[in-house]
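pinging the channel bc i need a second pair of eyes. not urgent but kinda urgent?? the chain im working w is below, pasted from the shared doc
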Amino acid sequence: MSKQFDVIVIGGGPGGYIAAIRAAQLGFNVACIDEWKNDKGGPAPGGTCTNVGCIPSKALLQSSEHFEHANKHFAEHGITATGVKMDVVKMIARKDTVVKQNNDGILYLFKKNKVSFFHGRGSFVKAAEGGYEIKVAGAAEESLTGKQIIIATGSNARALPGTPFDEELVLSNDGALRVGAVPKKLGLIGSGVIGLEMGSVWRRLGAEVTILEGLPTFLGAVDEQIAKEAKKAFDKQGLKIELGVKVGEIKTGKKGVSIAYTNAKGEAQSLDVDKLIVSIGRVPNTIGLNTEAVGLALDERGAIVVDADCKTNLPGVWAVGDVVRGPMLAHKAEEEGVAVAERIAGQHGHVNFNTVPWVIYTSPEIAWVGRTEQQLKADGVKYKAGTFPFLANGRARALGDTTGMVKMLADAETDEILGVHIVGPQASELISEAVVAMEFKASSEDIARICHAHPSLSEATKEAALAVDKRTLNF
Protein backbone atom coordinates (compact mmCIF):
# COMPACT_ATOMS: atom_id res chain seq x y z
CA MET A 1 0.00 0.00 0.00
CA SER A 2 1.28 3.46 -0.94
CA LYS A 3 2.46 5.70 1.90
CA GLN A 4 0.76 9.09 1.98
CA PHE A 5 2.55 12.44 2.32
CA ASP A 6 1.66 16.09 2.00
CA VAL A 7 4.97 16.87 0.30
CA ILE A 8 7.46 14.55 -1.43
CA VAL A 9 10.88 15.93 -2.35
CA ILE A 10 12.84 14.04 -5.00
CA GLY A 11 16.53 14.78 -4.45
CA GLY A 12 18.44 15.41 -1.23
CA GLY A 13 20.92 18.06 -2.36
CA PRO A 14 20.96 21.67 -1.15
CA GLY A 15 17.65 22.49 -2.80
CA GLY A 16 15.96 19.24 -1.81
CA TYR A 17 16.95 18.70 1.79
CA ILE A 18 16.41 22.37 2.65
CA ALA A 19 12.96 22.28 1.00
CA ALA A 20 12.05 19.12 2.92
CA ILE A 21 13.13 20.52 6.27
CA ARG A 22 11.38 23.85 5.73
CA ALA A 23 8.16 22.13 4.63
CA ALA A 24 8.27 19.95 7.75
CA GLN A 25 8.81 23.02 9.92
CA LEU A 26 5.68 24.51 8.35
CA GLY A 27 3.64 21.54 9.54
CA PHE A 28 3.56 19.26 6.52
CA ASN A 29 4.07 15.49 6.52
CA VAL A 30 7.20 15.29 4.34
CA ALA A 31 9.23 12.60 2.57
CA CYS A 32 12.61 13.12 0.91
CA ILE A 33 14.02 10.64 -1.59
CA ASP A 34 17.74 10.55 -2.41
CA GLU A 35 19.89 7.91 -4.11
CA TRP A 36 23.47 9.03 -3.31
CA LYS A 37 25.51 6.24 -1.71
CA ASN A 38 28.66 6.31 0.40
CA ASP A 39 31.48 3.78 -0.09
CA LYS A 40 29.61 1.28 2.08
CA GLY A 41 26.37 1.59 0.13
CA GLY A 42 24.65 3.63 2.82
CA PRO A 43 22.77 6.90 2.28
CA ALA A 44 24.79 10.01 1.53
CA PRO A 45 22.34 12.92 1.20
CA GLY A 46 23.64 16.33 0.20
CA GLY A 47 23.80 15.90 -3.55
CA THR A 48 26.67 17.02 -5.76
CA CYS A 49 27.47 19.90 -3.40
CA THR A 50 28.18 17.74 -0.38
CA ASN A 51 29.52 14.63 -2.10
CA VAL A 52 31.53 15.73 -5.14
CA GLY A 53 31.30 19.51 -5.28
CA CYS A 54 31.34 22.44 -2.88
CA ILE A 55 32.29 20.69 0.34
CA PRO A 56 35.02 18.23 -0.74
CA SER A 57 36.64 20.75 -3.08
CA LYS A 58 36.94 23.27 -0.24
CA ALA A 59 38.50 20.59 1.96
CA LEU A 60 41.18 19.92 -0.67
CA LEU A 61 41.70 23.62 -1.29
CA GLN A 62 42.29 24.15 2.43
CA SER A 63 44.74 21.25 2.70
CA SER A 64 46.71 22.33 -0.35
CA GLU A 65 46.78 25.94 0.83
CA HIS A 66 48.24 24.86 4.18
CA PHE A 67 50.91 22.92 2.28
CA GLU A 68 51.81 25.89 0.12
CA HIS A 69 51.96 28.24 3.10
CA ALA A 70 54.29 25.86 4.93
CA ASN A 71 56.60 25.56 1.94
CA LYS A 72 56.57 29.12 0.64
CA HIS A 73 55.29 31.59 3.22
CA PHE A 74 56.05 30.40 6.75
CA ALA A 75 59.63 31.74 6.49
CA GLU A 76 58.28 35.29 6.17
CA HIS A 77 56.81 34.88 9.65
CA GLY A 78 60.01 33.54 11.14
CA ILE A 79 58.80 29.95 11.06
CA THR A 80 61.30 27.37 9.83
CA ALA A 81 59.69 24.31 8.28
CA THR A 82 61.90 21.76 6.60
CA GLY A 83 61.07 18.49 4.90
CA VAL A 84 57.39 19.38 4.51
CA LYS A 85 55.59 16.63 2.60
CA MET A 86 52.03 16.03 1.50
CA ASP A 87 50.40 12.67 2.19
CA VAL A 88 47.80 12.73 -0.59
CA VAL A 89 46.07 9.59 0.67
CA LYS A 90 45.58 11.17 4.08
CA MET A 91 44.44 14.43 2.48
CA ILE A 92 41.78 12.56 0.50
CA ALA A 93 40.75 10.64 3.64
CA ARG A 94 40.28 13.92 5.52
CA LYS A 95 38.14 15.19 2.63
CA ASP A 96 36.02 12.04 2.84
CA THR A 97 35.59 12.54 6.60
CA VAL A 98 34.38 16.09 6.05
CA VAL A 99 31.90 14.83 3.46
CA LYS A 100 30.58 12.11 5.78
CA GLN A 101 30.12 14.60 8.61
CA ASN A 102 27.92 16.67 6.32
CA ASN A 103 25.99 13.58 5.13
CA ASP A 104 25.35 12.54 8.73
CA GLY A 105 24.37 16.09 9.64
CA ILE A 106 21.63 16.11 7.02
CA LEU A 107 20.27 12.75 8.20
CA TYR A 108 20.22 14.12 11.75
CA LEU A 109 18.28 17.19 10.60
CA PHE A 110 15.76 14.96 8.83
CA LYS A 111 15.22 13.01 12.03
CA LYS A 112 15.03 16.16 14.15
CA ASN A 113 12.43 17.73 11.84
CA LYS A 114 10.47 14.48 11.34
CA VAL A 115 11.21 14.20 7.61
CA SER A 116 10.77 10.61 6.36
CA PHE A 117 13.88 9.70 4.37
CA PHE A 118 13.87 7.09 1.59
CA HIS A 119 17.15 5.87 0.11
CA GLY A 120 16.81 5.19 -3.60
CA ARG A 121 15.85 6.74 -6.92
CA GLY A 122 12.49 8.48 -7.06
CA SER A 123 10.41 8.50 -10.23
CA PHE A 124 6.88 9.35 -11.31
CA VAL A 125 4.43 6.49 -11.79
CA LYS A 126 1.21 8.36 -12.51
CA ALA A 127 -1.08 11.11 -11.37
CA ALA A 128 -3.10 9.81 -8.44
CA GLU A 129 -6.17 11.04 -6.64
CA GLY A 130 -5.15 14.26 -4.93
CA GLY A 131 -1.53 14.11 -6.09
CA TYR A 132 1.05 11.82 -7.66
CA GLU A 133 2.32 8.30 -7.14
CA ILE A 134 6.10 8.12 -6.78
CA LYS A 135 8.19 4.93 -6.92
CA VAL A 136 11.36 4.61 -4.86
CA ALA A 137 13.81 2.13 -6.38
CA GLY A 138 16.26 1.21 -3.64
CA ALA A 139 17.21 -1.83 -1.61
CA ALA A 140 13.47 -2.39 -1.29
CA GLU A 141 10.97 -0.82 -3.67
CA GLU A 142 8.55 1.63 -2.06
CA SER A 143 5.40 3.35 -3.29
CA LEU A 144 4.62 6.86 -2.05
CA THR A 145 1.80 9.25 -2.84
CA GLY A 146 2.19 12.99 -2.38
CA LYS A 147 -0.14 15.94 -2.76
CA GLN A 148 2.77 18.23 -3.64
CA ILE A 149 6.00 17.16 -5.37
CA ILE A 150 9.25 19.14 -5.32
CA ILE A 151 11.89 18.01 -7.83
CA ALA A 152 15.46 18.82 -6.82
CA THR A 153 17.53 16.32 -8.79
CA GLY A 154 20.43 18.64 -9.55
CA SER A 155 22.84 18.37 -12.47
CA ASN A 156 25.54 16.19 -13.99
CA ALA A 157 28.96 17.06 -15.40
CA ARG A 158 28.95 17.75 -19.13
CA ALA A 159 31.33 15.48 -21.07
CA LEU A 160 33.16 16.39 -24.25
CA PRO A 161 31.52 14.79 -27.31
CA GLY A 162 33.29 11.54 -28.05
CA THR A 163 35.30 11.63 -24.83
CA PRO A 164 33.33 10.05 -21.97
CA PHE A 165 34.50 10.24 -18.38
CA ASP A 166 36.34 7.13 -17.24
CA GLU A 167 37.26 8.77 -13.88
CA GLU A 168 40.77 7.35 -14.19
CA LEU A 169 42.37 9.38 -16.96
CA VAL A 170 39.51 11.63 -18.11
CA LEU A 171 37.94 13.07 -14.98
CA SER A 172 34.77 14.91 -14.08
CA ASN A 173 34.57 16.86 -10.83
CA ASP A 174 33.96 13.48 -9.15
CA GLY A 175 37.18 11.87 -10.33
CA ALA A 176 39.13 15.08 -9.80
CA LEU A 177 38.36 14.83 -6.08
CA ARG A 178 39.63 11.25 -5.83
CA VAL A 179 43.07 11.49 -7.44
CA GLY A 180 45.33 9.32 -5.27
CA ALA A 181 48.71 10.86 -6.10
CA VAL A 182 49.99 14.16 -7.45
CA PRO A 183 50.15 13.92 -11.25
CA LYS A 184 53.32 15.29 -12.83
CA LYS A 185 51.30 16.93 -15.58
CA LEU A 186 47.63 17.79 -15.26
CA GLY A 187 45.43 19.16 -18.01
CA LEU A 188 42.09 20.89 -17.60
CA ILE A 189 39.56 21.86 -20.22
CA GLY A 190 37.55 24.83 -19.03
CA SER A 191 38.69 27.72 -16.84
CA GLY A 192 35.50 28.11 -14.85
CA VAL A 193 35.02 27.51 -11.14
CA ILE A 194 35.86 23.79 -11.15
CA GLY A 195 38.82 24.19 -13.49
CA LEU A 196 40.43 26.98 -11.49
CA GLU A 197 39.79 25.40 -8.09
CA MET A 198 40.99 21.91 -9.01
CA GLY A 199 43.87 23.34 -10.99
CA SER A 200 44.89 25.35 -7.93
CA VAL A 201 44.78 22.30 -5.64
CA TRP A 202 47.11 20.17 -7.74
CA ARG A 203 49.37 23.07 -8.78
CA ARG A 204 50.05 23.78 -5.10
CA LEU A 205 50.97 20.15 -4.56
CA GLY A 206 53.51 20.17 -7.37
CA ALA A 207 51.68 19.31 -10.58
CA GLU A 208 52.44 21.17 -13.78
CA VAL A 209 48.97 22.46 -14.65
CA THR A 210 47.72 23.65 -18.04
CA ILE A 211 44.17 24.94 -18.49
CA LEU A 212 42.69 25.10 -22.00
CA GLU A 213 39.80 27.55 -22.39
CA GLY A 214 37.73 27.92 -25.53
CA LEU A 215 36.61 31.49 -24.87
CA PRO A 216 38.91 34.33 -25.94
CA THR A 217 38.53 36.10 -22.60
CA PHE A 218 39.31 34.91 -19.09
CA LEU A 219 36.29 34.55 -16.76
CA GLY A 220 33.90 36.27 -19.14
CA ALA A 221 31.12 36.42 -16.51
CA VAL A 222 33.36 38.32 -14.09
CA ASP A 223 33.93 42.08 -14.14
CA GLU A 224 36.73 42.61 -16.66
CA GLN A 225 38.97 44.60 -14.30
CA ILE A 226 38.65 41.95 -11.60
CA ALA A 227 39.26 39.11 -14.08
CA LYS A 228 42.45 40.74 -15.32
CA GLU A 229 43.71 41.15 -11.75
CA ALA A 230 42.95 37.47 -11.02
CA LYS A 231 44.67 36.34 -14.24
CA LYS A 232 47.85 38.20 -13.25
CA ALA A 233 47.86 36.40 -9.90
CA PHE A 234 47.33 32.97 -11.45
CA ASP A 235 50.06 33.59 -14.04
CA LYS A 236 52.45 34.56 -11.26
CA GLN A 237 51.63 31.34 -9.39
CA GLY A 238 52.53 29.23 -12.42
CA LEU A 239 49.01 28.23 -13.45
CA LYS A 240 49.25 28.09 -17.25
CA ILE A 241 46.01 29.26 -18.87
CA GLU A 242 45.59 29.25 -22.66
CA LEU A 243 42.60 31.17 -24.00
CA GLY A 244 40.79 30.93 -27.33
CA VAL A 245 41.71 27.32 -28.00
CA LYS A 246 39.78 24.78 -30.03
CA VAL A 247 40.08 21.25 -28.66
CA GLY A 248 40.40 18.48 -31.22
CA GLU A 249 41.06 14.76 -30.81
CA ILE A 250 41.70 13.38 -27.33
CA LYS A 251 43.51 10.06 -27.00
CA THR A 252 44.02 8.00 -23.85
CA GLY A 253 46.63 5.31 -23.33
CA LYS A 254 49.02 3.73 -20.88
CA LYS A 255 51.09 6.92 -20.70
CA GLY A 256 48.13 9.19 -20.01
CA VAL A 257 46.12 11.57 -22.18
CA SER A 258 47.06 13.40 -25.37
CA ILE A 259 45.04 16.45 -26.40
CA ALA A 260 45.26 17.94 -29.87
CA TYR A 261 44.13 21.57 -30.14
CA THR A 262 44.63 24.79 -32.01
CA ASN A 263 45.66 27.89 -30.12
CA ALA A 264 44.22 31.40 -30.43
CA LYS A 265 46.48 32.03 -33.46
CA GLY A 266 45.10 28.96 -35.22
CA GLU A 267 48.33 27.00 -34.78
CA ALA A 268 48.15 23.24 -34.21
CA GLN A 269 49.29 22.23 -30.74
CA SER A 270 49.36 19.11 -28.58
CA LEU A 271 49.37 18.59 -24.84
CA ASP A 272 50.39 15.36 -23.12
CA VAL A 273 49.28 14.95 -19.51
CA ASP A 274 48.95 12.23 -16.92
CA LYS A 275 45.33 13.11 -16.20
CA LEU A 276 42.72 15.37 -17.78
CA ILE A 277 39.91 17.13 -15.91
CA VAL A 278 37.01 18.23 -18.11
CA SER A 279 35.04 21.11 -16.61
CA ILE A 280 32.94 22.58 -19.40
CA GLY A 281 29.71 23.03 -17.47
CA ARG A 282 26.87 20.92 -16.20
CA VAL A 283 23.55 19.64 -17.54
CA PRO A 284 20.21 19.30 -15.70
CA ASN A 285 19.64 15.83 -14.28
CA THR A 286 16.25 14.30 -15.10
CA ILE A 287 17.57 10.77 -15.64
CA GLY A 288 15.13 8.17 -14.40
CA LEU A 289 12.43 10.65 -13.32
CA ASN A 290 10.00 9.17 -15.85
CA THR A 291 8.71 12.64 -16.68
CA GLU A 292 6.78 11.32 -19.69
CA ALA A 293 4.49 9.32 -17.41
CA VAL A 294 2.89 12.53 -16.16
CA GLY A 295 3.68 14.93 -19.03
CA LEU A 296 6.19 17.07 -17.17
CA ALA A 297 7.57 19.69 -19.59
CA LEU A 298 11.32 19.97 -20.29
CA ASP A 299 13.07 22.63 -22.33
CA GLU A 300 15.61 22.18 -25.13
CA ARG A 301 18.45 21.82 -22.58
CA GLY A 302 16.62 19.10 -20.71
CA ALA A 303 15.82 21.39 -17.80
CA ILE A 304 12.40 21.29 -16.17
CA VAL A 305 10.32 24.25 -17.30
CA VAL A 306 9.18 26.44 -14.39
CA ASP A 307 7.74 29.90 -13.92
CA ALA A 308 9.10 32.63 -11.65
CA ASP A 309 7.68 30.79 -8.61
CA CYS A 310 9.26 27.42 -9.58
CA LYS A 311 5.89 25.96 -10.62
CA THR A 312 6.00 23.41 -13.46
CA ASN A 313 3.28 22.83 -16.06
CA LEU A 314 1.68 20.28 -13.70
CA PRO A 315 -0.51 21.31 -10.75
CA GLY A 316 1.20 20.58 -7.46
CA VAL A 317 4.61 19.87 -9.03
CA TRP A 318 7.53 22.22 -8.41
CA ALA A 319 11.22 22.15 -9.31
CA VAL A 320 14.26 23.93 -7.88
CA GLY A 321 18.03 24.22 -8.18
CA ASP A 322 20.26 23.01 -11.01
CA VAL A 323 17.44 21.14 -12.73
CA VAL A 324 15.71 24.45 -13.63
CA ARG A 325 16.73 27.78 -15.17
CA GLY A 326 19.10 30.16 -13.45
CA PRO A 327 22.61 29.86 -12.01
CA MET A 328 23.74 26.39 -10.94
CA LEU A 329 24.71 27.35 -7.41
CA ALA A 330 24.00 25.50 -4.17
CA HIS A 331 22.82 28.61 -2.33
CA LYS A 332 20.46 29.53 -5.18
CA ALA A 333 18.95 26.04 -4.86
CA GLU A 334 18.58 26.48 -1.10
CA GLU A 335 16.77 29.78 -1.52
CA GLU A 336 14.39 28.26 -4.07
CA GLY A 337 13.79 25.25 -1.81
CA VAL A 338 12.77 27.44 1.12
CA ALA A 339 10.64 29.67 -1.13
CA VAL A 340 8.72 26.73 -2.63
CA ALA A 341 8.02 25.19 0.79
CA GLU A 342 6.66 28.55 1.94
CA ARG A 343 4.58 29.01 -1.22
CA ILE A 344 3.01 25.58 -0.68
CA ALA A 345 2.06 26.83 2.80
CA GLY A 346 0.43 29.91 1.30
CA GLN A 347 3.26 32.25 2.24
CA HIS A 348 5.31 34.52 -0.01
CA GLY A 349 8.66 32.88 -0.68
CA HIS A 350 11.45 35.23 -1.76
CA VAL A 351 14.28 34.68 -4.26
CA ASN A 352 16.12 37.60 -5.85
CA PHE A 353 18.44 36.49 -8.66
CA ASN A 354 20.01 39.97 -8.72
CA THR A 355 21.51 39.43 -5.26
CA VAL A 356 22.77 35.87 -5.63
CA PRO A 357 26.52 35.97 -4.88
CA TRP A 358 29.12 34.09 -6.90
CA VAL A 359 32.42 32.84 -5.47
CA ILE A 360 35.52 31.12 -6.84
CA TYR A 361 37.55 29.73 -3.92
CA THR A 362 40.99 30.08 -5.42
CA SER A 363 43.81 32.15 -3.97
CA PRO A 364 43.09 34.97 -4.49
CA GLU A 365 39.40 34.36 -3.98
CA ILE A 366 37.01 35.94 -6.49
CA ALA A 367 33.51 36.99 -5.45
CA TRP A 368 30.85 39.20 -6.93
CA VAL A 369 27.19 40.17 -6.77
CA GLY A 370 25.11 42.26 -9.13
CA ARG A 371 26.09 43.60 -12.53
CA THR A 372 29.56 44.06 -13.95
CA GLU A 373 30.87 47.27 -15.45
CA GLN A 374 30.66 45.83 -18.96
CA GLN A 375 27.01 44.85 -18.37
CA LEU A 376 26.14 48.35 -17.19
CA LYS A 377 27.80 49.83 -20.27
CA ALA A 378 25.94 47.42 -22.55
CA ASP A 379 22.64 48.30 -20.85
CA GLY A 380 23.29 52.03 -21.17
CA VAL A 381 23.16 52.55 -17.40
CA LYS A 382 24.91 55.65 -16.07
CA TYR A 383 27.09 54.59 -13.17
CA LYS A 384 29.94 55.57 -10.87
CA ALA A 385 32.80 53.23 -9.96
CA GLY A 386 35.07 53.10 -6.94
CA THR A 387 38.00 50.76 -6.29
CA PHE A 388 40.38 50.17 -3.42
CA PRO A 389 43.41 47.85 -3.46
CA PHE A 390 44.22 45.43 -0.65
CA LEU A 391 47.81 46.64 -1.03
CA ALA A 392 46.72 49.71 0.98
CA ASN A 393 44.80 47.73 3.61
CA GLY A 394 46.55 47.24 6.98
CA ARG A 395 44.88 43.93 7.77
CA ALA A 396 45.86 42.52 4.37
CA ARG A 397 49.47 43.56 4.98
CA ALA A 398 49.43 41.82 8.36
CA LEU A 399 48.00 38.68 6.74
CA GLY A 400 50.74 38.79 4.14
CA ASP A 401 48.24 38.75 1.27
CA THR A 402 47.71 42.08 -0.47
CA THR A 403 46.62 40.74 -3.85
CA GLY A 404 43.56 42.27 -5.46
CA MET A 405 40.95 44.90 -4.79
CA VAL A 406 37.33 45.73 -4.02
CA LYS A 407 35.29 47.41 -6.75
CA MET A 408 31.90 49.03 -6.22
CA LEU A 409 29.49 50.20 -8.93
CA ALA A 410 26.62 52.57 -8.11
CA ASP A 411 23.89 54.34 -10.05
CA ALA A 412 25.14 57.77 -11.14
CA GLU A 413 21.91 59.49 -10.09
CA THR A 414 20.50 57.57 -7.13
CA ASP A 415 23.80 56.12 -5.79
CA GLU A 416 22.10 52.71 -5.36
CA ILE A 417 24.71 49.92 -5.39
CA LEU A 418 24.46 47.98 -8.65
CA GLY A 419 27.37 45.59 -8.24
CA VAL A 420 30.30 44.73 -6.00
CA HIS A 421 33.30 42.76 -7.25
CA ILE A 422 36.18 41.49 -5.14
CA VAL A 423 39.40 39.66 -5.88
CA GLY A 424 41.62 39.04 -2.89
CA PRO A 425 41.81 37.47 0.56
CA GLN A 426 38.54 36.20 2.08
CA ALA A 427 36.45 37.63 -0.77
CA SER A 428 33.92 34.84 -0.14
CA GLU A 429 33.18 36.28 3.31
CA LEU A 430 33.41 39.96 2.37
CA ILE A 431 30.81 39.69 -0.40
CA SER A 432 28.01 39.07 2.11
CA GLU A 433 28.01 42.70 3.22
CA ALA A 434 27.39 43.72 -0.38
CA VAL A 435 24.58 41.16 -0.75
CA VAL A 436 22.80 42.52 2.32
CA ALA A 437 23.31 46.10 1.18
CA MET A 438 21.92 45.43 -2.30
CA GLU A 439 18.97 43.43 -0.96
CA PHE A 440 17.96 46.52 1.02
CA LYS A 441 18.77 48.81 -1.94
CA ALA A 442 21.53 50.61 -0.07
CA SER A 443 23.57 53.40 -1.60
CA SER A 444 27.36 53.48 -1.74
CA GLU A 445 27.17 56.33 0.78
CA ASP A 446 25.37 54.00 3.21
CA ILE A 447 28.36 51.64 3.14
CA ALA A 448 30.78 54.55 3.38
CA ARG A 449 29.06 55.85 6.53
CA ILE A 450 28.84 52.48 8.32
CA CYS A 451 31.51 51.92 10.98
CA HIS A 452 33.81 49.04 9.98
CA ALA A 453 36.20 47.39 12.43
CA HIS A 454 39.83 48.45 12.22
CA PRO A 455 41.99 46.82 11.11
CA SER A 456 39.86 44.58 8.91
CA LEU A 457 39.64 43.54 5.29
CA SER A 458 36.11 44.95 5.25
CA GLU A 459 37.61 48.43 5.39
CA ALA A 460 38.52 47.93 1.74
CA THR A 461 34.78 47.72 1.00
CA LYS A 462 34.20 50.97 2.88
CA GLU A 463 37.07 52.62 1.00
CA ALA A 464 35.71 51.42 -2.36
CA ALA A 465 32.34 52.96 -1.41
CA LEU A 466 34.07 56.22 -0.50
CA ALA A 467 35.94 56.12 -3.80
CA VAL A 468 32.64 56.03 -5.71
CA ASP A 469 32.30 59.71 -4.81
CA LYS A 470 36.05 60.33 -5.09
CA ARG A 471 36.55 60.50 -1.33
CA THR A 472 38.92 58.49 0.83
CA LEU A 473 39.83 58.03 4.48
CA ASN A 474 43.21 56.52 3.56
CA PHE A 475 43.38 53.86 6.29
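so The chain has a mean pLDDT of 97. and The two ends are 69 Å apart (CA to CA). — does that match what u expected or am i reading it wrong
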